[in-house]
Give the backbone structure.
Amino acid sequence: MTFTFKFEGREETLTVGYETSVQVISVDCGAFTNYVNLSVINSTFTDPQVLVNQLSTHATVNIQISVD
């Protein structure tokens, strides 16, 4: 999935990859999709870093990017 950021007359992109796994919680609750193995595939940002490679409601930052 590619994200495009437009700011200050610039355009930067970040392409990330991930895998999904489905976990059935219960018959009443249904299923929950987990997004794991988050990785940066391509980026125009300098040195983006994956801090947490599984998307979670508890993670405050998954990928850190810096703007020069």
Notes: The two ends are 23 Å apart (CA to CA).
